[in-house]
Specification:
It is a single chain. With 121 residues, this protein is mostly beta strands. It has 1 helix and 8 strands; from the N terminus they run βαβββββββ. The longest helix has 4 residues. The radius of gyration is 16 Å and the shape is globular.
Length: 121
């Protein structure tokens, strides 16, 4: 299962749901082009992502830069697909806090490209 797509941040270790959704609903999103973005509280981030396998499960490791209430911030993180289809991860702020998070998919995974079969008339 691919991690590509948008995920709703449902819980974080350091902040409750009201804080996560302060500006807009918290999310993390992975593109098929090794980029991504996220938002929670007043933090916006843009990611450089690498797909890896961690303990036999699909995982994304990333670095990020962005803003927190308009101030520049950066860091790193990871997210791994759990057995139940949710996403478990951790985000680190450079020289600052780090927090675990859980997320659920908000849009279906992109379809797997299959060769189209040709039918004869």
């Amino acid at each position: 299962m691919s991690l590509t797509g948008r995920w709703r941040v449902a819980a974080m270790e350091l902040w409750d749901t009201d804080a996560i959704d302060l500006v807009a609903p918290g999310f993390i999103e992975f593109g098929s082009d090794r980029t991504g973005r996220f938002g929670f509280i007043a933090v916006e981030g843009w990611m450089d992502c690498r797909e890896v396998i961690r303990d036999g499960r699909p995982c994304v490791e990333f670095t990020w830069e962005g803003s927190d209430e308009g101030d520049p911030v950066s860091g790193r993180g990871w997210a791994v697909l759990a057995d139940d289809g949710t996403l478990d991860g951790r985000i680190f702020f450079h020289l600052g806090d780090d927090s675990g998070f859980q997320a659920v998919r908000t849009e279906p995974a992109p379809p797997v490209n299959k060769r189209a079969s040709r039918r004869r008339p």
